[in-house]
Amino acid sequence: MNTLDIYNLGTVPYEKALKYQENLLSKRIAEEIPDSLILLEHPPTITTGRKGNTEHLLVREEYLKKHGVSFVHSSRGGDITFHGPGQIVGYPILNLKDHGMDIRRHMRTIEEMIINTLGDFGIEGRRIDGVTGVWVKRSKIASIGIAIRKWVTYHGFALNASTNLDYFDLILSCGITDVRITSMENWLGNNKSVKMDDITQSVIRNFMGVFGFENFTLKGEE
Fold this sequence. Notes:
The radius of gyration is 16 Å and the shape is globular. Helix 3 crosses helix 5. It is an alpha/beta fold. Strand 1, helix 1 and strand 2 form a beta-alpha-beta unit. Helix content is 27%, strand content 32%. The mean pLDDT is 90.
């Protein structure tokens, strides 16, 4: 299939978005729908992956509740991370039988898409050997954590566009000591405001390019 279904959902609570993924995942496994990409933002949420270490949460859960931050144990891979407003989150629902059946290649392809998107805005993104994600110099700008069921992917990536980076002080991000977190807004400067719609369109274009899609269809909520 060369057509990608895209669901641009706006702001969605994390657990509701997970149910949305599960719905599309089941349909993709049954071959009822083509490959899909969910794009959205989350309210302030800290998640930890299947092998995440809760000791990497640096404050008590009571503190999070008091400050309106959700805490969720997730089925994705990876350690602890933050999602929130100003961050483009993407959940690809792809059948890897059509994309090489290689999980590492899939993650490297997502990294390539993010690097290409940053390049559209004059930001030089890069990989660091042995660590998943995308970096600008020594600062992390995008995280990736996926899951696979019957060779269909879910969960995905989070790109910091204009995210409030103070939230990352609440965690040991991705379990990496002394990691620095940055955003596109930081690198573009205050005189170049980041337009989320422009970044989203760049993500869509680059996602289609790296995964070989020729067309896309914008879909409403399932």
